[in-house]
Amino acid sequence: MIVGGLLSPLENVLTEVLTWLHDSAGLTWAWSIVALTVIVRMLLVPVAVRQIHSMQSLQIHAPEMKAIQQRYKADRQKQSEELMKFYKENKINPYASCLPIVFQIPIFISLFFVLRDFEKEIFPNFPSSTLEWIGLVDITEPTKDGWGPVLIVVYVISQLTSTWLMSTSMQSQAQRIMIMVLPIVFLPFILGFPAGLMIYWLTTNLWTTGQGIVTRRLMPKPAIPPKRTSRTPPKGSGESQTTPAPGGAVDGARGAGTGTPRRVKRKRGGGARR
User: Fold this and answer.
1) What is the DSSP annotation of 191-234?
2) Where are the alpha helices (DSSP H) in the chain?
3) What is the predicted pLDDT for the residue at 25?
């Protein structure tokens, strides 16, 4: 398989890490997967912080972006151009919120291939080890077997919780509904996944949930900037500024309401004679 060939180096890294955690740290294979998940998520903390900042920024600027969408709702191309200008002016990366998922997809697929041949290629080298996790599931067996459905229930709860923490920063109701429904849509596909892969996914969801709770309490939200759109003139444009002339005189463009009012003398006998 092409994907498997491209991910072979990553598969080898995951295999070495799992073997080290089992052989040197003394963990079972299942708990080695949990430890591997924690290591991966710790390495992705900087990416997660960037994701949180991006989502907060999108939430703060949501009214201005909505105004741009309403203004150009009849012209989709113009709307996209104005939104891109707005993102650039306010230093917003709308795709930063997807970075943690993008980085985890190759790891998830690689772990799938590792577990698929685990019992044949790796497990025979450690005959005294066990493939079970707390006596419930075998990490190489499909999740639907044995006590696997218990993992599925916990997965659904953890997935809904973690996605809800992400969806609270989304302004579109359709986006919230979609991201909450996706865990249910995935159920038919994950039934055939190895239970070890479900342990990885479940640990990831629990980490995401805890990370979301902690960062909401500890990470300060960025200051709300003054309202600004793509049509707002840049700072220092000098359209309404006045420049002092040499000698302390003021440029004639200054409004008449400034300075001391001048007194006008009435002319005597200026009235019309009969």
Assistant:
1) TTSBHHHHHHHHHHHHHHHHHHHHHHHHSPPPPPPPP--TTSPP
2) 2-6, 8-23, 29-43, 45-60, 62-71, 76-89, 99-116, 118-121, 148-167, 173-185, 187-190, 195-218
3) 87
> Residue 135: its pLDDT value, please?
74
Question: Do 155 and 205 meet the contact criterion of CB atoms below 8 Å apart?
Answer: yes
- Quote the tokens at residue 26: 């003394």
Number of residues that make up the chain: 274
- Provide the 10 A C-beta neighbour count for residue 22: 20
Q: Please, what is the angle between helix 148-167 and helix 173-185, to 10°? A: 170
Residues in the chain, pLDDT under 70:
1-5, 97, 128, 165-180, 182-183, 216, 218-274
Neighbours of 39 (CB within 10 A): 12
Which are the contacts of 9, defined by CB distance < 8 A and separation ≥ 6? none
Is residue 93 within 8 A of residue 54, CB to CB? The reply is yes
61 burial (CB, 10 Å; 0-12 / 13-18 / 19+) is: buried
Q: Identify the helix (H) or strand (E) that includes residue 138.
A: strand 137-138
Beta-bridge partners for 194: 142
Most distant CA atoms of the chain, gap in Å: 130
Query: Domain limits of the chain?
Result: 2-218
- Closest residue by Cα to residue 136 from 115, 157, 150, 118: 150
Q: Give the CA distances from residue 263 to residues 163, 260, 266, 267, in Å, rounded to whole numbers and listed in that order.
A: 72, 9, 10, 13
Amino acid symbol at 236: G
Q: How many CA atoms lie within 13 A of 83 on its CB side?
A: 20
CA distance to 99, 246, 257, 262, 264, per residue, from 254 (Å): 52, 15, 8, 16, 21
**Angle at the Cα of 155 (from 190 to 33), degrees rounded to 5?**
80
